[in-house]
């Protein structure tokens, strides 16, 4: 089962999870919470009605006709036959609620089954089922319900059927749409390949993923269905006398509206209260459960990472190299905890240089790189301290338009997975055109020609034709070439590449590395290359910074570090790289796990996994030790180890 899609439901039903659960999200929405409270109160009243000390709802007493509310023994008065309105309202609410909810359940079940079958099997099944649904939808909605009741004969049960039938298309259409997109997803293919039958796939793979959609559709239609039931009863086609439901009470009271207004007003108010509370709640449920809204649309991250004043100060001296990063600190504030993802790395990049950033997954490489251009999501990210100096300005402190001018212009970014960063609905040529025109005043035609030229530059075979392809029509290597072409579109000074070859196979990786290296030399640009593979570092980097738990633990020229690693962690990382002439024996691995960034140790952060650890290592923070002008390491034994 696809975990990411099933999770919302699991969380909805109360599994513990550190992020905000949909229920919390729902209760944070005041209107929805108010709706929920009113609805719960009404439901409880309706449930306990049989045990309340009430008059019989159908007991007539002509001597007590049309008593006003507040009369003795009749709190809400009586109607034209002397029946107690309080009793009738409560019993009527029971009826209206149960008919509305039953109709919703019937419509949801039948509609969802039709939708799932049509969406999953497609072709003829889809055609037949959906054309049937279209026929139902071709009739005006309420007229169809009236026609159905006219055929079946008046009565509550028939009204229920009529309302269920006219609502089936809503469910069928919604569910079919979701199922069609799910059917082509990899996890369904995987289930098919594992030998599961269609029935099991529908139940275990598809259904859990469409359930949120069904719940959302139900929550937004149940109020409407109660209203329709009331409508049919109002016209005399639903509940038959003497049975009370809200619609028929309203219908009976209508004729007395001038003499005894309370007879019609009270059921009218009840309908209003009920439908209003259900709709408010339904909207809240939709907001909390809808995958698109839940993905953060309700709490949209800012266009730029939040930055503390300490990190916004302008540089005083002349910055080192092309780009200088000084004591950068980025944190995530989540559920009252502080996750220190980036803990003060300090480094610079020379013009034309390739600096490698290497470390295990989770060591803070991506967050460091994204902090440079303010790309870390806020909330929860916040840059607490540090400077990112470029052209004598601190990028963390410049205005939004200035930063936007740099992004994708002089400072370009290549992401790990080009399939998720390229827009699926535009041709790659159009996306390149967009990248070009964001920074330069070019006509569409000129930009298109330039786009094709850029694709040729990254050695895209048959570039003019490929420019008209969509991302899904290209192979992984070609897509990454497109991303590189986009990053290079405006002749950047610095290219930040975040594991650009991790998703590719080794031969394509080699091509891409060669390409990046050649382009860097041609354009005299700098490259900040993030990877977890020393083999890659060796191929294209001049210097490398080794990151661990958000800190740089060693930095220096690549040959020197490969020949004489000074930090035990670096040595272990180098030991993890298999070589072609490697013969048998176990590959080295690093035992243990990196420390949790929400609870970092005081001293050396690698201490728990180091085989040379002493008490001194854990006592106090370890400073970077300068081994020579270009080579530094954060280990008290650095000199001994490297010697
Ligand atoms: P990597 O070195 O693999 O690129 P990252 O820089 O992505 O690692 O992550 C560093 C740390 O920051 C990790 O512990 C990760 O859990 C945390 N982190 C990254 N992004 C977020 C986020 N949006 N919210 C909370 N924590 C995050
Ligand atoms: Mg990363």
UniProtKB/TrEMBL annotation:
Q: Where are the transmembrane segments?
A: 31-52, 99-121, 133-153, 206-227, 263-282
> Domain of life, per the record?
Bacteria
State the Gene Ontology terms under molecular function.
ATP binding; ATP hydrolysis activity
* InterPro entries with a match to the protein in the record: AAA+_ATPase (IPR003593), ABC_Ni/Peptide_Import (IPR050388), ABC_transporter-like_ATP-bd (IPR003439), ABC_transporter-like_CS (IPR017871), MetI-like (IPR000515), MetI-like_sf (IPR035906), Oligopep_ABC_C (IPR013563), OppC_N (IPR025966)
Q: Indicate the segments forming the ABC transporter domain, all copies.
A: 323-574
User: SUPFAM superfamilies under this entry?
Assistant: MetI-like, P-loop containing nucleoside triphosphate hydrolases
Q: Where is the ABC transmembrane type-1 domain?
A: 93-282
Cross-referenced PANTHER family, in alphabetical order? ATPASE AAA-TYPE CORE DOMAIN-CONTAINING PROTEIN, OLIGOPEPTIDE TRANSPORT ATP-BINDING PROTEIN APPD
NCBIfam families, alphabetically?
A: oligo_HPY
- Write down what this protein is called: Dipeptide/oligopeptide/nickel ABC transporter permease/ATP-binding protein
Organism, as annotated: Natronospirillum operosum
**Classification lineage:** Bacteria, Pseudomonadati, Pseudomonadota, Gammaproteobacteria, Oceanospirillales
């Amino acid at each position: 089962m696809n975990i990411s899609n099933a999770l919302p439901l699991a969380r909805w039903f109360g599994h513990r999870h550190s992020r905000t659960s949909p229920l919390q999200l729902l209760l944070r929405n005041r209107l929805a919470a108010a709706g929920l409270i009113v609805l719960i109160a009404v439901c409880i009243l309706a449930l306990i009605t049989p045990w309340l000390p009430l008059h019989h709802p159908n007991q007539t007493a002509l001597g007590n006709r049309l008593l006003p509310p507040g009369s003795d023994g009749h709190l809400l008065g009586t109607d034209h036959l002397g029946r107690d309105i309080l009793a009738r309202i409560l019993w009527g609410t029971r009826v209206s609620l149960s008919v509305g909810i039953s109709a919703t359940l019937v419509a949801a079940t039948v509609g969802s089954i039709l939708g799932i079958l049509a969406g999953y099997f497609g072709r003829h099944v889809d055609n037949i089922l959906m054309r049937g649904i279209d026929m139902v939808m071709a009739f005006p909605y309420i007229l169809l319900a009236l026609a159905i009741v006219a055929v079946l004969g008046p009565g509550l049960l028939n009204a229920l059927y009529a309302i269920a039938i006219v609502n089936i298309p809503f469910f069928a259409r919604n569910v079919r749409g979701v199922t069609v997109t799910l059917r082509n997803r990899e996890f369904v293919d995987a289930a098919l390949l594992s030998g599961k039958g269609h029935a099991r796939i529908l139940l275990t793979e598809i259904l859990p993923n469409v359930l949120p959609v069904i719940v959302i559709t139900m929550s937004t239609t149940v109020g409407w269905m109660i209203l329709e039931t009331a409508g049919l009863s109002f016209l005399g086609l639903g509940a038959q006398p003497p049975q009370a439901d809200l619609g028929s009470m309203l219908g009976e009271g209508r004729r007395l509206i001038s003499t005894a207004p309370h007879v019609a007003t009270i059921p009218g108010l009840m309908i209003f209260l009920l439908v209003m509370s259900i709709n408010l709640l339904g909207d809240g449920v939709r907001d909390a459960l809808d995958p698109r809204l839940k993905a953060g649309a309700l709490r949209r991250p800012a266009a730029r990472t939040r930055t503390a004043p300490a990190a916004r100060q302008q540089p005083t001296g002349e910055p080192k190299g092309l780009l200088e990063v000084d004591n950068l600190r980025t944190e995530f504030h989540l559920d009252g905890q502080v996750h220190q993802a980036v803990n003060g790395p300090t480094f610079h990049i020379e013009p034309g240089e390739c600096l490698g950033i290497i470390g295990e997954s989770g060591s803070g490489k991506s967050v460091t790189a994204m902090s440079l251009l303010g790309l870390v999501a806020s909330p929860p990210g916040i840059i607490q301290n540090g400077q990112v100096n470029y052209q004598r300005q601190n990028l963390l402190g410049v205005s939004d338009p200035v930063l936007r001018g740099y992004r994708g212009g002089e400072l370009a970014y290549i992401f790990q997975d080009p399939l998720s960063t390229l827009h699926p609905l535009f041709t790659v040529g159009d996306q390149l055109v967009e990248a070009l025109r964001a920074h330069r005043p070019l006509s569409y035609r000129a930009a298109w020609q330039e786009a094709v030229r850029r694709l040729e530059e990254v050695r895209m075979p048959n570039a003019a034709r490929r420019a008209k392809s969509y991302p899904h029509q290209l192979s992984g290597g070609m897509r990454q070439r497109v991303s590189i072409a986009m990053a290079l579109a405006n002749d950047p000074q610095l290219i930040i590449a975040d594991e650009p070859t991790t998703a590719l196979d080794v031969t394509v990786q080699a091509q891409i590395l060669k390409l990046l290296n050649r382009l860097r030399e041609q354009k005299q640009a700098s490259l900040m290359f993030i990877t977890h593979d020393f083999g890659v570092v060796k191929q294209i980097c001049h210097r490398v910074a080794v990151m661990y738990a958000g800190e740089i633990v060693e930095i220096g020229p690549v040959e020197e570090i490969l020949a004489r690693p000074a930090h035990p962690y670096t040595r272990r990382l180098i030991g993890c790289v298999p070589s072609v002439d490697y013969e048998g024996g176990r590959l080295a691995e690093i035992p243990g796990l990196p420390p949790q960034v929400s609870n970092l140790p005081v001293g050396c952060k690698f201490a728990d996994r180091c085989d040379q650890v002493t008490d001194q290592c854990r006592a106090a923070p370890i400073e970077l030790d300068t081994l020579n002008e270009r080579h530094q390491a954060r280990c008290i034994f650095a000199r001994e180890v490297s010697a």
